[in-house]
Amino acid sequence: MNFEVRFKSILSRWIKNVYLPVVIIVVTLATVACLVVRNTYLNSVENSAEEYARSFSQLSVMDSDFFPRAAKEYCEEFEAKDKIEIMVLDSNGEILVSTSGFERKDLLMPDYKRALQSETKSAVWMGKSSAGEKILAGTYLLEDFGNGSNGAVRYAVSLRLCNRQIRESVAVIICLALFILVFSATTGLFFVKSIIRPVREVSAAARKIAAGDYKEQLVSTHADEIGELCDSINYMQSELAAAENLKNDFISSVSHELRTPLTAIRGWAETAKMSVGDEDTALVERGLDVVLSEADRLSGLVEELLDFSRMQSGRFTLNVRPFDVAVILSSAVDMYVELASKHDVEVLFTPAKGEITVNGDPDRIKQVFINIIDNAVKYTTEKGQVLIEEVLEDGCVKITVKDTGVGIPAQDIDRVKEKFYKANNSVRGSGIGLAVADEIIKQHQGLLFLESTEGVGTTVTVVLPIYVVPEEETEKIIPTENEGEENE
């Protein structure tokens, strides 16, 4: 089997699904922030410049004779000459006076032309001066009161300081964005690496376990899903190791179970063959009895294995019909009374009064009783007892098989119904009898549970629901006398 693990796919998925969206978001936010900073600075400059220029609005009330002199006085008294240049234009668009004191005849003033065409009588322009310096210029027309002094006020401010502040702010934003991207990449790669490393360890451990090395254990310092995965792998390893041990024990047990009767059959068959023609018929009969007994034992073991195989593959079927459970139980008990007496074990059966009908497969239920009673007799020492009782209780029949045998250790009581598991390997058995019995009872909607104390004995209880005859409406037809005579 080819175990191909592409660890780069984790990194590529992280880049595609996590880091790339982060890059897009950070770049978008940085771009928006830069535009906001630029517009904020430019709007601040524009508002300040317009506020300075609006201080010249009183010129609109001057008459035409006093207008030039008043404009000159306003320009001379202007205090922010080092920050902004204010120009006063006449009604023809010619510069009358400027706060800088320089005469400019060929100055480009696109903002003035736009203001003439604007409904708001104002306009702003950003561009380069004749000296090549970036400036922000604006013009607003003075209100015409009919005195002939209406003209315009224009301002121009250098953007050198503003652009420098914009560049510095943009540089800070870009550095912050790069820091976020680098930090995200570093932490993300570290996180991905922290996932890939334990995944590689888990993969290596899984390969070893798949190859049959059940001693491999993962050590994780993570208290998260990775640590939980490592714990699950370790648990799986321990369960597989236990299953492997159970399988080996099962194979050893079944091999022993098969070898013992086969040895007896072979030995007694050879003895019987050598005794043919002799007068010692008793020996031949004894040998044949042993052969038949061991053959039955082998047949029972094979049937048990076949039942387990059917149960595992889902082909375990039942031939369901109503039957008297007491009859089946009594038949199973009779099979072991004589056998138990040979081992000095007393079997006592207390049936319930009256007929108790159960809906199920009588052969399978008898198989369960035989398995339970057989275990009770096997694990009970000499002078012991096996008490079997049948009780009707709350719409169910409860069958208890109580022995005075060796008992089951407390650490094994919860596992004796597992497949292949044997709490005591000193006694014959395949270790799947109780597993099959438990499955049969479950398919009959019943319960099978055990109670045991080591050195005292074990009690196995089987609970099955009582069969209730369904109510069916049947039409009874009673023939008349005439019909009876006609039939005669």
Sequence-ordered SSE layout with sheet pairings:
Blueprint: H1 8-54, H2 67-77, E1 85-89, E2 95-98, H3 110-117, E3 122-128, E4 134-141, E5 152-158, H4 160-210, H5 225-274, H6 281-313, E6 321-324, H7 325-342, E7 346-350, E8 357-360, H8 362-378, E9 385-393, E10 396-403, H9 433-443, E11 447-453, E12 457-465, H10 481-487
Parallel strand pairs: 7-9
Antiparallel strand pairs: 1-2, 1-5, 3-4, 4-5, 6-8, 9-10, 10-12, 11-12
Quick check: average pLDDT? Answer: 80
Would you tell me the structural class of the helices and strands?
Answer: alpha+beta
Low-confidence stretches: 1-7, 473-488
Q: Per DSSP, what share of the residues sits in E-state strands of 2 or more residues? A: 15-25%
Q: What is the straight-line distance between the termini?
A: 82 Å
- How would you write the strand order of the largest sheet? 2-1-5-4-3
Number of strands: 12
Largest sheet, in brief, is: 5 strands, antiparallel
Gyration radius over CA: 52 Å
> Helix share of residues?
40-55%
Task: Provide a count of the helices.
Answer: 10
Shape: rod-shaped
- How are helices and strands ordered from N to C? HHEEHEEEHHHEHEEHEEHEEH
Short description:
The chain is α+β, with helices and mostly antiparallel strands. It has helices spanning 8-54, 67-77, 110-117, 160-210, 225-274, 281-313, 325-342, 362-378, 433-443, 481-487, and strands spanning 85-89, 95-98, 122-128, 134-141, 152-158, 321-324, 346-350, 357-360, 385-393, 396-403, 447-453, 457-465.
